[in-house]
Amino acid sequence: MAFDRLIEKIVEKQNPTVAGLDPKLDYIPSYIKEEAFAKYGKTLEGAAEALLVYNKGLIDALCDVVPAIKPQAAYYEMYGWQGVKTLAETIRYAQSKGMFVITDGKRNDIGSTMEAYATAHLGTTDVEGEKIDAFGSDALTVNGYLGTDGIAPLLDICKKGDKGIFVLVKTSNPSSGELQNLELEGSETVYHRMGKMCEEWGEELPSKYGYSGVGAVVGATYPEQLKELREQLKTTFFLVPGYGAQGGGANDVKYAFDENGIGAIINSSRGIMCAWKKEGCDERDYAQAALREAIRMRDDIKSVVGEMKL
Amino acid sequence: MAFDRLIEKIVEKQNPTVAGLDPKLDYIPSYIKEEAFAKYGKTLEGAAEALLVYNKGLIDALCDVVPAIKPQAAYYEMYGWQGVKTLAETIRYAQSKGMFVITDGKRNDIGSTMEAYATAHLGTTDVEGEKIDAFGSDALTVNGYLGTDGIAPLLDICKKGDKGIFVLVKTSNPSSGELQNLELEGSETVYHRMGKMCEEWGEELPSKYGYSGVGAVVGATYPEQLKELREQLKTTFFLVPGYGAQGGGANDVKYAFDENGIGAIINSSRGIMCAWKKEGCDERDYAQAALREAIRMRDDIKSVVGEMKL
Q1: Which ipTM did the prediction report?
Q2: Global pTM?
Q3: Per-domain residue ranges for chain B?
Q4: Contacts of residue B120 in chain A, CB cutoff 8 Å?
Q5: Which of A7, B157, B201, B232 pairs as cysteine with B118 (C-beta 3.0–4.6 A)?
Q6: B2-304: which CATH topology?
Q7: Who among B127, B179, B194 is closest to A43 (CB)?
Q8: Do B143 and A145 touch (CB under 8 A)?
């Protein structure tokens, strides 16, 4: 199943991290933007071209060290359908370099519509008998507010295509507790309940290494909840945002891992993408700066997690 | 504010309904598909072209009678970036015909990312000083699981651009209660709490007719909750899915309206789009069949709601 593939890549590279590709024009070196605008003008096409060149540079630099990328759909939609084309091309390019791709879309809807999202991002679209991957990602983040029938169509498509999902459980943002931490009758919280639903949904997608194809998003910015959820959700693989720019460190994320050093993948987006700005290096060195930060992050996390073993 | 514009259109047309444009290839008459595939082959481009021609036909037929359309993003994403291009073109075409457009995307994320979604769907993207509407819709459906800082960036952009949002409160699907109906300590449910948050967020987007720019999605399939929520959420405009194909009727949706016959807009998607199949009419008559169904639906709802007055 899908997270077996991801776990194997993590162990092979001894690196449980994912590079978030959330490209804003502000992050992109000016030489890339100038070339793109010279070709397409200051248009959405121009912006989308700059994003693609920037992303490919990052992927080329990172692919031997980092097992996965997580493009965030919002940053592509911001540049229109042209940006969404760059999303599709980024996914394909990263996969061609051997990377696992998690599309961060937080999609959610009723069953019939969720089937369309599942087809779009993880499945195969049928155009009068022709089978075409619209986006063809390896995993998708989703929001479980609608309950089981908003998740079931994803499970079917994951099963057929060896794909996975990550359900939002406890998000990394400051106000995540407003709804997620509300206490239900019987002394559990909304996020606990969502976590349990992940375990149940996951029963349909069993896997080799003990983690089902239904993962959970749990923020690094709430280490206590991360620890508590790791103990409760034995078969749920975690996608952990919030390391770096959002404030989480290695000591916060260590709780996400099991005794074999697996069970989670830690995301950094701005930390990696904007490393060249933070370093103050030549902008043409942006991808190597991203790699330096990715290696620093890997070593930082490995120092608390130890060796990853299957 | 945005829902003032929508309410004025509803009153002018004496029609509190919205046509959901969730186009699957299966729904599209074969003469449209054949032309598109002759031009582009059985490709995502071909599918996207068929969707666009189909949508334009529906919009031309409906625009004098129906005040708004609600394209569902999933059905466009299913046909790749090419489908997403059709989404953008559909939004623009409907607006050029005077219709209000609600993009049904159920987007949600942390603050910085939500700003990107808000910019994409409701705002204006800055490409090095050039201001471009990426999708330029009038309203967007969103999911509030992440709390206030996932909503705040939308409020800013709605304020500047005279736009609105609809937050999922009680959805129309069979399993919506699994999470939404959970009882919190103090005898309210998760969906009640979400409804109250809509009222609070709405304070930032006041309007002429008493309904803020923060609406709520409440399903027609749960008429009791609809009634109860209408009584509790005095300033929250409702988007009500679930009429028609999902099982809701006029007697179920009447509770969504206030004593002036306003306060809500009722969606039908498959009922309108597939009217030609249900009628068994000539497929070239698909748009007029949609109009006949839209008129039947309008009259059905008006028969229980009465005249809409400002």
Answers
A1: 0.97
A2: 0.98
A3: 2-304
A4: 74, 77-80
A5: B157
A6: TIM Barrel (3.20.20)
A7: B127
A8: yes
